[in-house]
Structure formats: structure tokens, C-alpha cells
Amino acid sequence: MPQTVPRRVSGTDWLRDALPKLVLSPSLAVVLVFVYGFILFTFVLSFTDSRILPSFGWVGLENYQKLFGLRAWGIAIDNLLIFGSLYIVICCVVGLGLAIFLDQKIRAEGFIRTIYLYPMALSFIVTGTAWKWFLDPGIGLQAVVRSWGWEGFAFEWIKDPKMAIYTIVIAAVWQTSGFVMAMFLAGLRGIDTEVMKAAQIDGASTFALYRRIIIPQLRPAFMSAFVVLAHMAIKSYDLVIALTGGGPGTATEVPATFMYSYTFTRNQMGIGAASAVIMLMSIAAIMVPFIYSELRERK
Amino acid sequence: MASDVRAGASAAAIRPVGAPGSSQVIRTGGTARVAIYLILGLFCLYYLLPLYVMVVNSLKPLSEIQAGGMMSLPRDWTVEPWGKAWSTAQIGVAATGLRPFFLNSILMVVPAVALSTVLGAMNGYVLTKWRFRGDTWVFGMLLFACFIPFQMVLIPMARLLGLMGLAGTVPGLIFVHLVYGIGFSTLYFKNYYQQFPTELVRAAQIDGAGFFTIFRRIMLPSSGPIAVVCIIWQFTNIWNDFLFGASFSDFDSQPMTVALNNLVQSSTGVKEYNVHFAGAIMAALPTLLVYVVAGRYFVRGLMAGSVKG
Question: Any idea which UniProt keywords this protein has (chain B) (predicted)?
């Protein structure tokens, strides 16, 4: 709380009172300009006829109409929905499963955890490179299995426009599921054991115990995992670029790659800005309620 | 209540087994335990597989990979792909190897991490110990800034860097990473300083200590752990960044991730997978090293950044 002792206002007092705010103000100014100001700028651009460079001829909602009429954008949205939902569900299932197993007084738990979590330290470009060649039919998994004598083996998802998006799920789950495991494990370790002991004395089976008592108590962990994963899914860019480059063709286009290519290589800045606005809105729809509830809880 | 539990969980990272609060009260049978160990072991293999593939294939001649030997150990061990990736591989238009870009990344990461950490510490100090009307709003705005899709700032930032004469330079990248790193570093220090007894600050104030003296003498000496968490987080994020690097760098100022992507995606000539894998490990080594040395802090950063963000 601020000081309550009344003092005469002099120059030094003023400085002393204002100093904390002065220290904070450069950061606040930077964020106001480079985050919120820039958001506003891009928002305005999305209503203009900008092409190679920003220009300010007002065109109303035309960019948005064009955007939603574009096949590439439709593909990007479909891909995001497929990728996002599989990514979130698989990460949660794998993460929760591993967390429950790891919570059974496992020997070398720390060591196993270290292995599960190291992919989070890697760049998506590194992950993408490793999986790109591992999934490549010419040299990767398919070639290896064939060289082992199983000549008919085929695994060509990364070259198949219908299946390529699932290779991105594979690599993304590999990268993040260990982290989701850590979130659930922290949740499990925070649960009150008294209730469980009581339920066990009442003769509840292990399965019932987890389904009825433990997993419902992990709700906050599920919420956090969902928010983190959904936000990562919408922002996915590096991994797609490194793994498939958005291809074959445009088969693995996602909103982030769409925005980049329309803005910087196809010179359709207005449409690119409109797609960025849509991305921001979907993230805001997830993050704002979450941040709001976190800040309110803490007061 | 829920937030207390999570705050505890993130503060202690993940408590070791057997510590009070471990939820393990269930006795599992012998067969079940064997199955659990088996599953956990299989997942270890799954997570290690890409690392194994990168390492063994960076140490074998290209012909062995082309012959379908990606999963086997090298027959002829060689470090040639490493030398090539480091100093002679074709990146874009020049055969410079990854070395200059590794240096770019270091030149970019060090100042950006240092500055954003210092600012974050000051901000966290103000937001917890010198509270004012509307500070929750200020923090909320900083917090939301951590999560915006950066596509939303690419266009104006490209213009601004051009106007400032920083387009396509390492200082330009430092500036960008500093600006978008402040949110997270503030979040870390704020959550940490919140646990710090405010009475100590008030007592020092009554003794006549000023704003900076209190920060230097009272807050800083106990900030070690969170500073490590923050530095590791910023280092990992900025080193691994691709979007800003790809958008705002020239050929000469490319960071490592962008150069690696150029190396791997180049469509001319024979695809030298072994060189690609060696380059990928080089790009991964710094963050991997930090993870091995200070994994505990890395996990704490992840948890604090996500569970409480």
C-alpha cells in the first residue's frame, strides 16, 4: 500500500512518489506503442487497399469478404481445426496418462521426466528438420522398414496432400506432450490425499478413484493445458515451415503461414492484415477470459 | 484456493515422490507395475528417437543414409558433416556454413536477454511493492501482450525498423525481442516478488532507504532463482525464434534458426541429410545445454509462464 503519512509536497517528495511510476513507464510506453498501437495499425490496414506497402484507401470490409472467399484461407482454417483439435486432445491424453503413470512412485522419475521434457527446449525448426527427414519416404521410416525386408511397407503421409497435416500433429505432439505431462503431474502432486485415502478405505477401485476423484480435481490443470495448447496451435508457424513448408501444394497451409505469404510474398497486405486480425480475435477469445479470471482470483 | 495450489506447484516445480502431497496412495500390483514401467520406457524411446536420428546420421557418410540406413549406427564414422555444416555448407547464396549465423544468434540473444530481464525485475518490483491505482490493469495489459499472435505486429514493425534504419540488422532484432520479451520477464518477477514480505520493504523505507536502495539491497539479493528462471526462458525463446528472424533479418543478420531452415530447404544440388542433421544439432545445442545444466529452472519457467499466465 502507498504511504499514508501526510507530508508537505515538495520537489523531492514529488519525485519520490513518482519514481516507481517513472521506472515502470518506459516498459508501459513500449507495450502501448509496439503491442497495442501496432494492433490498431494492423486493424486499420485490414480495411484498406494496402498491397506491397501500407496505403490508406478505405475499402470497408472488402478484404474480409475476399479473405473468406479464398480457397487457401478455407484450407488454412480447416487445417487449423484438424490440427488444433487433434493436437490438444492427443497431448492431453498422452500427458495425463504419462503423469498418472509417473505418479506411481516410479524409480528414476527425475531422469524419465528429463527425457520427456527436453523437446520443449528445442526450436521448432530443429524438430521440423528431424521429423521431415525421418518421415521422408525416400530415406526415412519407409526406406528403413523396407531395408529390413518388409518391401510392401508404405508410409508417405508427408508427401500426401490428404495426410500431410497429420505429420504436423505427430511432430507437434512429440514436442509438447512432455510439457503437458509436467503440468498434470504438478496438478496431481497438489491434490489432497485425505479424500483419496478415505475413498480407498471405502473400497473404491484404482480406476474409479482416478475417474471419480482425482481427474475431476485436475480441472485447473486441464484449463491451463487447453489455453496453452490452443494458443500454441493458432500461432504455429515455424514447425509447418520447417516440416512441410505449407505443402505439398497448399495442403498444410495454416493461418500463420497464410498471413505471411499473402503479406510479404503475394503483396496482398490488406488481406494479410485481415487474416492477422482473425488470428488475434481467436486468441483473444481464449486468453482474455483466462487472464481475467487469473487476475481476479489473485486479488 | 485453486490458484494457491497452483502457485505452490509452480514454486516448487514438481515435488519429488514421497514428499508430502504426493498423490500416490494407491498400491499397484506387480503386473501393473511391469506394464507401467514398460509404457514409460517406450515413451522414453519415442522422445529420444529424433535425437538419436539426428546424432547418428550427422556422423555417417551420405551414402549410408541414402541406402536406407537411417536407423543404424554409422559403419564409417565421420565428423565431416559437422565441419561442412559449420564452415562450408551453402546457405542461401553463399557457402559460409552456419558459423556466422551462430554468432549472429549469440550477438542477438545476449543483450536482448539481459535488458529484458533487468526491465522485468524493475517492473515486477514496482508492481508488487509500490502499488498504485490501476496497477492490475497495467499488469493485465503486459500479460496479454505475451500471448498476441505476432502476425499482428509484423507489418508495422517492418515499417518502423525501416524508418529507424534498423531493418535487416542484428540491433533491430535485439530491439524486437526486447520489446516482446518484457511481458514474460515482468510476469516472472511480479509473481516472485509477490511472495516477498512487504513489511521488510516498509521497514527499510522508514529507515530512510529510497526506491533504488531497497531494490539493490533487499530485493536483488534474494532474486537469484527467479533471475535464473527468467534468463533461461528468454534465452530459449529468443534463440529458438524463427518468425521475427525470418521477417526482419537480411542475409548478413540471419539468426541460426533461419539459416538452418535455409540450409535444409535449399533445393539446389544433392540433399546432404547428414549435413542438415549436424546443423540441426548445432542449432539445438545451446538450449539443450542450458536444459541439461539447469533443467529444474527451465521447467519452473515453463510452469510459471503457462500455469499462471
Answer: Membrane, Transmembrane, Transmembrane helix, Transport
What does the alpha-carbon distance between residue B66 and residue B68 come to, in Å, rounded to a whole number? 5
Q: Which residue of A has its CA nearest to B121?
A: A24
Q: Is the pLDDT of residue A191 over 60?
A: yes
Interface confidence (ipTM) of the complex: 0.86
Q: Is a pLDDT exceeding 80 seen at residue A193?
A: no
Q: What is the CATH number of domain A64-298?
A: 1.10.3720.10
Could you tell me the CATH number of the domain that includes residue B156? 1.10.3720.10
The number of domains in chain B is 1
Q: Do A143 and B26 touch (CB under 8 A)?
A: no
% of chain A with per-residue pLDDT over 90:
47
What are A213-246's pLDDT values in tens digits? 888 888 888 988 898 899 899 989 999 999 998 8
A182 CB near a chain B CB, below 8 Å?
A: yes
A150-187 residue pLDDT tens: 888 888 898 888 899 999 999 999 999 999 999 999 88
Q: Is residue B70 part of a domain?
A: no
pTM for the full model? 0.87
The letter for the amino acid at B15 is: R
Q: Is A20 on the interface with B (CB under 8 A)?
A: yes
